[in-house]
Amino acid sequence: MPELTYREAVRDALRKALREDERVFLMGEDIAEMGGSMAVTQGLLEEFGPQRVRNTPISEMAIVGSGIGAAIQGMRPVVEIMYEDFLTLSMEQLVNQAAKHRTMSGGQVRVPLTVRTQGGAGWSPGAQHAQQLEAWFVHVPGLKVVFASTPEDVRGLLWSSIYDDNPVLFFEHRTLYPIKGEVPEELEPIPLGKARVHREGEDVTVVATGRLVHEALRAAEEAERDGVSVEVVDPRTLLPLDEETIIASVRKTTRCVTAHEAVTRGGFGAELAAVIQHGAFDWLDAPIERVGAKFAPLPFAPVMEQYVVPHAEDVYEAIRRTVARG
Amino acid sequence: MAVEVRLPRLGQGMEAGTIVRWLKAKGDPVAKGEPLYELDTDKVTQEVEAEADGVLLEILVPEGEAAVGTTVAIIGEAGEDVSALLAAQTSVGDGAGPASTPRTEEPHGAEAERERGARVDEEPGAGARGGPELRPSVAPEARGSEPQRRTEPAAAAARRPGERVKASPLARRIARERGIDLAAIVGTGPEGRVIAEDVEQAAAESAWAPATPALAVPGGATEVEVVPLSSVRRTIARRLSEAWEAPVFQLTVSANASELVATRERMVALLREGEVRPTVSDVLTKLVAVALVRHPAVNAHFLDDAIHRYSTARVGLAVAAPTGLVVPVIWSAERRTVQEIAVARADLVERAREGKLQLVDLEGGTFTISNLGMYGIEQFTAVLNPPQVAILAVGAIEERPQVVGGELVVAPALTMTLTCDHRALDGSDGADFLRTVKEYVEAPALAL
């Protein structure tokens, strides 16, 4: 199987969709000549021209709003919000417009819009350029929310997002762009709402998203040395959520840790914990542990940044707490 | 600030350990991470490291067996007064003192435990017990009687009659399903919470009659050698007795081993200097592993309410270690080359003989091979290794008369017997698997 970086995998899905389907086009700040601030769309302007790879003014409200309009008119737009922190500026369009049209029109209007965005700490970007805000959108009926952690997943899930008839918030993680991974020769769509079991285990399930999937896998190896067998599950789609796979896993292992880079309080792990305690109550042998960032704006100083966000060690310690005695 | 050194739980299922010897003496300075004492569990012996810096102020369990969580020593600053901590320890049934538990005919069961709890609470001095944080200190003699070991501290653990029991939802469900009274169980989870393993343990103990303590031998030591059970021996006894209750059947097959022997000889001929020589058993491990992946019904665990089938073969090899039988596990054996299996096996066997296996080496097996071929045993039946659903007993490869293509020839042959847990497997499942193994033995290339 060929290897792609996470960045190349996103680009590969975009390029294939642009080649095969005239309804697909891209919009965003500096995505054309510059190739996007994260270099994801590099080379696409040259291949597809300025009609289909469009730079926009610096107005997230306008980017998402015009994307909604185009989607309603039958296009399949993929718009980019440079940093997910800037989603705040497009909240009206996402929450009150994109998410509501389909149901409020009795199904007459569909909004097949994909909003790509990225975030994540680890490179000292400060408090306004690295947040993890995915949980906000899980609270909005009418949206779908995807957060992919591997090249294979990001490519297959982006494809399915473009071809979903609902607006999809598609989160990428800044520090995952350079990671490499095997992908199928031909792009294989990955259905939304299907979790991936990265590693099977017997004693504890770690449900992790984004960068923390990789941290969880490292923690699992460490725990294995202590004789604790860890299962690592990545939901991949936060909304809709593959409750079945997650609950089955926790019923098997009887213990659970949730892990994401976003702050713990009110994070997606809280939703997971609620779903799991309901679906696996009689199978739980320890309180569900949550791993996430400390409740603080992200500091610029690298040591402080590292202190605030979670790492493999935090997942490992949470695993240890779930199997603790006395 | 003095800290208590508590007997750690080194792996799933560990309930107690035996302190073999201390590597530090009372009064020695210790650093966090330094080896403190040697601990013998039912699976391995390993060094336990100090978890704090300071001076080893007291050793409470000089040697012998203690339950997980027992305070075995105290580390603190030089000259620190730890009398309060010590008092708390010794007030539990006289603490680690050997003569602490001379009871013989104690009533069992939750009812009696509660009664005793109430009675004990009325005794003068009960207030000095130190509250719910206190951990039971178990004297070696008390270990002879398992149910008492578990239930006695329940009374001492300051849980009053009618007091709410902290238990995990899973522990509650298991207790409900099996009709076990949670109040009679000592919780070993955080803050004394009863967790699933505690209930399982209590259930197993109520079903398992305790071993009779070594009797005084009338003839004296010259005639009868009394061998106290090591923790390994005790585990073997308990697990195999449990296994004996499973409804099992055996299937036996003989196979022409000419190709097996020849394949292994060709492998050895290709070796470079210094490489580990694969044995016939190593080739067999590989063949069986590949067969297991084709027959996941056999590559499974039988658990209380489900059969767990595995997609990868973790093959346990029964090894005779000086302390008794151990079964180290080769993971993903189907994906390894014979040479890789040989290297892994050589390492495991060597460490097994030296008593240096870690718990991780012994856990997770999905199937076991027991090979007595080197002793010249022609065929035998092995006892299940639960929760695995089958075990393969392999006899010696020897020249036997065989009929090949209508001709009587003499060729190497071996006989294998598969013991199957009938709760999980039917005769046809085992026969299917064994047929594949036979085909692979007669034509190893099919699996390599």
Structural features, described:
- The complex is a heterodimer of chains A (326) and B (448).
- Chain A has 326 residues and is an alpha/beta fold.
- Chain A has two domains: 3-182, Thiamin diphosphate (ThDP)-binding fold, Pyr/PP domains (Rossmann fold), CATH 3.40.50; 196-322, Rossmann fold (3-Layer(aba) Sandwich).
- Helices cover 36% and strands 20% of the residues of chain A.
- Chain A contains twelve helices and 14 strands.
- Chain A has helices at residues 6-20, 44-48, 60-72, 91-98, 101-104, 134-138, 151-162, 211-225, 243-253, 268-279, 302-308, 312-322; strands spanning 3-5, 24-28, 53-55, 76-81, 114-119, 144-147, 168-173, 180-182, 196-199, 204-208, 230-234, 237-239, 256-263, 289-293.
- The termini of chain A are far apart.
- In chain A, 52% of the residues are buried.
- The model of chain B is unreliable at 91-158 and 208-222 (pLDDT under 50).
- In chain B, the strands form five sheets. In chain B, strands 9, 12, 15, 16, 17, 18 and 19 form a seven-stranded mixed sheet that branches.
- Chain B has eleven helices and 19 strands.
- Chain B has helices at residues 83-90, 109-122, 146-156, 169-178, 196-207, 231-244, 258-269, 280-294, 338-353, 359-362, 427-442; strands at 3-6, 16-22, 29-30, 35-40, 45-49, 54-59, 64-67, 71-76, 248-256, 300-302, 307-309, 315-317, 319-321, 324-326, 329-330, 367-371, 390-394, 398-404, 407-421.
- The longest helix of chain B is centred in the last third of the chain and has 16 residues, at 338-353.
- Chain B has a domain at 234-446: Chloramphenicol Acetyltransferase (2-Layer Sandwich).
- The radius of gyration of chain B is 26 Å and the shape is globular.
- In chain B, a hairpin with a 2-residue loop joins strand 18 (398-404) and strand 19 (407-421).
- By secondary structure, chain B is an alpha+beta fold.
